[in-house]
Design goal:
- The N and C termini lie far apart (about 40 Å).
- With about 100 residues, this protein is an alpha+beta fold.
- It has a 4-stranded antiparallel β-sheet with strand order 1-2-3-4, covered by helices on one side.
- Helix content is about 15%, strand content about 45%.
- It contains 2 helices and 4 strands; from the N terminus they run H-E-H-E-E-E.
Length: about 100
C-alpha cells in the first residue's frame, strides 16, 4: 500500500454540488436520479449487491447570506444478500433529509 493511498479521502461516487448563489430567494426544488454507472458505484461503496433505483427529491431554501436548508427524501431499491442464508433479497429504503 502506497503512502498516498493509505490516507486517501472516502469515495464519493454521487455528488451534485449546488452554489448558494444559484438558489433564488423563493427556493428551488430538485429531483435527482443517478445513471446506472453511478448507482453501481454507490452500491459498491455501500457494500450491497445493487441499486436498481436511487432517487432524491429536495427543496433548497436560502437562510441568510451564507446558509442553505435542504429538506426532502432519498429513496432506493436495494439488492443485497441475506446475512444468514445468503439468499438474494430486495428492500425499499426511504430516508428523510433536513440539513442546514
Amino acid at each position: 500500500m502506497s503512502k498516498s493511498s493509505a490516507k486517501s479521502a472516502p469515495e464519493k461516487p454521487w455528488s451534485v454540488p449546488v452554489a448558494l448563489e444559484d438558489i433564488p430567494d423563493t427556493g428551488k426544488h430538485v429531483e435527482l436520479a443517478p445513471d446506472p454507472v453511478t448507482r453501481a458505484a454507490v452500491a459498491k461503496v455501500a457494500g450491497v449487491v445493487g441499486l436498481p433505483r436511487l432517487a432524491a427529491s429536495f427543496d433548497l431554501t436560502r437562510h441568510g447570506a451564507d446558509t442553505l436548508q435542504v429538506v426532502g427524501t432519498v429513496s432506493a431499491t436495494v439488492d443485497q444478500n441475506c446475512v444468514v442464508t445468503l439468499d438474494p433479497i430486495q428492500s425499499e429504503v426511504e430516508e428523510a433529509i433536513d440539513l442546514l
